[in-house]
Amino acid sequence: MRNLKMLGLAAIAAAALTALVGVGSASATTLCEQNVTTGCTKHVAKETTIDFSAEDSIKLAGPLGIVLDTCTISTTNGPTTSTGSDEAGGVEGANVTGAITTLTFEGCSRKTTVTSTGTFKTASGAEDPTFGTLSITHIKGTDNGKVFSSGATVTIHELPNIVGNPATCAYITNNTELGTLTGSTTTPTFDISATITSETENCPSGTWSGHYKYTGTTPFTISD
Length: 224
What we know:
Elements: E1 6-7, E2 9-13, E3 30-32, E4 49-54, E5 58-61, E6 67-82, E7 96-99, E8 102-108, E9 112-115, E10 118-121, E11 127-130, E12 133-138, E13 144-150, E14 153-160, E15 166-172, E16 176-182, E17 189-196, E18 206-214, E19 221-223
Antiparallel strand pairs: 1-2, 3-19, 4-6, 4-18, 5-6, 5-18, 6-7, 6-8, 7-12, 9-14, 10-11, 12-13, 13-16, 14-15, 16-17, 17-18
């Protein structure tokens, strides 16, 4: 799943991937256009779209490390919906959050689909479908952050289940830690390494893995 922009999955997906910003108290997380870990003075604005694309194949491995699904293309993007503080036009809080408005998996070894879980109302009043949400928490002393996902639903069709029959298996994130977003003023990256439990009876749990790079117009670091 190369464009598993975060699981959303982003991936991804995620991405996962997807969009987050702000500054505020020392405990808040913010997206910054500067290479600093604290004291950012140039923040990414609320509703900035964050875009990520997979650089290599995205994989779901089951028990014993057996690869269950591989996708060669994956993308994820979405706007920031809440920032670390109100200074960047958001709502003050501990994390930066974003809606996932695009989550794709293509070139997969098995049929792989995503399900919309709601809508996001843009500044123009239009409503875009969403595929879950993301939040970012700053890793102290670095320009990086941990990424969490909720409500992203990825379904893999005709997977072998524990009783040996092909099954349609749904994987849904619920405040699931997806991996690490590495901040950069040129090209941020997002590495997924997440254990996802299937919501479908008799389906195996899986470990998602993959590497995404930022393809948006406003690169950022993560600070507080």
